[in-house]
Amino acid sequence: MEKRSRAQNGKQLERWVCMAMRVNIAKIDRVLYLVERGIGLVFMAAFASSQISRSATNDRRPTISRIDCFCAVQSAWLLVVLAAGTAWADDAPAALTDTLAAPSAAAAGIVADRPASGRSVAIDGHYMTHYTEQIPGTSISFEMIPIRGGDFLLGSPADEKGRRADEGPQVRVRVGASWIGKCEVTWHEYQAFMESYYAFKSLDSFRAELARTGRLSGKAEPLKSLQLFLREESLEVDGVTCPTPLYDPDTTYSAGDEPNQPAVTMTQFAAKQYTKWLSGITGRQYRLPTEAEWEYAARAGTATAYSFGHGHALDDYAWHAGNAGGQTHAVASKRANPWGIHDMHGNAAEWVLDEYDQRHYAQIAGAEDGSDIRAQGRIVLASDAVRLPTRLYPRVIRGGCWFDEPARCRSAARHQSEDPEWNMSDPNLPKSPWWFTEEEATGVGFRIVRPWERIRPAQQESVWAADVERIRQDVADRLSEGRGTRCAADVRLPAAIGELEAAGLID
Q1: What is the pLDDT of residues 358-387, one digit of tens each?
Q2: pTM reported for the whole predicted model
Q3: Which of 446, 134, 187 is nearest to 329 (CA)?
């Protein structure tokens, strides 16, 4: 009881300090953790040394406990925080928000002063702004739009035309601030990830050589970035698998394969791995949106069936069954919603993080136990509204696509994956965990978000990794058979791959 009480008191002290400084805890938690780890190890070593010394001299005087050492470290560090004051938060906001942040790229999308033009969001004494991210090691870039946090009604009213039962009851949800992709992830962007497969294969062989001999030889011997990456990488923490070469490119690209068209037919697992890869090499945390986050961004402050009204101008905003001509189209070739986001209606439907359950809204609203959360005036946090997958399928897909009827492109319309039907043509066992093979999947892509609040280590598994045993086993089998490859994605990876390419060491 004494140990837990002191730990709780230490955490409460941290919160009081943060409130006094008006600094978000999420911004200091990572640095505090690292400092505690470093200084704490010194204290623990000193404690162990004193115990050994006392044992040798039969000294029975009272000693300082390990938890006292730890609390002393925490208190000392908090005094440092107080001395630093609010200038600390002003100096390095992104490095504390993104646990993966590279110092040279920490402030993307964050400025101290309100921009004279363009969309911006005031938060924690800074401004989130529109920014362009270039994928390291390539000339490929994409744009991110800032979205302020707020409340909205998730789902559709009972009288909305085209509504289905799984869209209700409506629930008021509070969503945090984030940046969201201006457009869906394109083939240009996704193929940069796909092409990493060959680099990962080469890195596999050099990793094995380094483990076997302790050094690299031949053309690889002078490659310093390669050696640094291989010696510092952490496969257990940062490991990603990239998509294998396509089994049937004709099906995958049947809806369009131009660089500016949305990438489609990947599984939700592959989309999540893309976001982990991108997070690792950029130093910023990207992921799929939750279902609530997606609808909040799609509505863009509106309460109508579409972000522009009730559907009369759909052709101006969306590619759907009535105007798409049997394929996807260039992203951003239709009008944006009020927040500047394109293709939230139609073109490619989009993966979100959630598992599909038609009763989900009723469950989070409390309707199934006879209560009504709306009548009580309560609000559900977006983190409590997400339904993380516990089954292989179905998963939620949002927005509708090029072959959907207009009603299925509404802001509230929910779609579900049909995994067994979508990979029937795959002759492999196990079937690919990265690609679907059927025409129905040619309408499924994704877009990314970057949350303002950092993704804590305990959350990273659920947003980036395989979330059920079946997927984990399929990936493991593919890797063991040499039909897949795995590599750590961190900020050193692009330089290592660049050296391999320059030396002609990628097959």
Answers
A1: 999 999 988 655 455 554 568 999 999 999
A2: 0.80
A3: 187
